[in-house]
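Section 3.1 - Work completed
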Amino acid sequence: MKVLAIDTSNYPLGIALIDEEKVLGEYITNLKKNHSLRAMPAIQQLLDECEVKQNELTKIVVANGPGSYTGVRIGVTIAKTLAWSLNIPIVPVSSLATVAASGRYFSGLISPIFDARRGQVYTGLYSFKDGILQTVIEDSNLLASEWAEKLKSYNEDILFIGNDVSIHQETLQTVLGGQAYIAAITSHNPRPSELAFLGVSAEGTSVHEVVPNYVRMVEAEVKWLESQKK
């Protein structure tokens, strides 16, 4: 089973190719560049270097958000196009879960962090049990201070992981004190190979059922609802 994983949901661009329990190849960059121009060439380059043809793929796994609205749409669109053209299943996986997966050797709880501006974060709470990532609190969008207060009641060590942790680190540590642990800098980029393994055993779905998960409404939707109230 050859599985292709695609993550363009934030600045990092991640592509991975796995075969059963083996990582054949992995491509990661963390650059402020246009994923729409770079993702497909990166996919083709990885397939070429691993000597795998597109028709050998058996499943597509995609990070479907939350994250950058544009980035999420790009990844989901590419993944759906490939899955449809190859007539293979597609599996959407939380972008936050993908980041959390890099904390697999932490014994406590894991909180991936994406900045959502104005003091807010996209986050969720995860833990590993018998080597399998478990969701403790579903992905959500709220103030970092509110999130920290919510986590305080768990009385457990919490690993904060993700490229945007530094933006909210002071708030999190002020509320949580010694409960808060910050992941090593090498763990902050989402690993597309982790994304692939999160989706490899999951049941695939049809391309028509896969949609971006923004967690909160996009700005256009908010403005439209406000205009309707007026």
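Second construct:
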Amino acid sequence: MKVALFIPCLSEHMFAESAISMIKVLKHLGIEYEYVEGQTCCGQPAFNSGYRKEVVPLAERFIKLFKDKEFVVAPSGSCTAMVRIFYHELEIRDELKPALNDLSKRMYELTEFLVDVAKIDGIGGSFAHRVTYHDSCHLTRELGVREQPRKLIHSIKDIDFVEMEKSDICCGFGGTFSYKFSELSTSMVARKCKYIEESGAEYVIGADSSCLMNIDGYLRKHNMKARAMHIADLLAKSLNL
């Protein structure tokens, strides 16, 4: 089993530690991996802003780069959903559509891959802290990934996992949504952080760096106790990697 890594823009430029943690976990589990040179943005920010025609060259490049890989794994539910679901809404050249259809079946978010494909029941490790989990929108609603991250969290020894109220309610980020509708976005993340604090968790775990960036920014700005952590970082820390 060999996976090709897709490292999203936000991971590469702002949350490289989470991408590195993903690699450490894969290595620990004996899963072979490779980094595909020449990869670029999947096009999601432009797509969500309405620039669908402009995204096509990025999508076609992605398809060409990854079409022959056994599996493609990313530390992001939203970018995975972009490729697996929303690429099909683009005017991709006809000759690339069969490759896209095939690639869509081999593109996975990290926790989804570990649990559903690699059949990892648990990774062991230990993390003696109280945590809760934020269900990001694309991961939950588009990909249907909900129990996989929880299964991995529950497998960690000494962890105190508690569900927050309305764990799947949006954090208010949504890329350019948080800029165009800043007041609404702030109200949404305030509500999310209220639920996190009420859970008593020290850390809120998630699978999308964009959500975690938004949530952690509000938590810190308002001197709230909890801190945000990507699930790849949690798994790596629990194993002392």
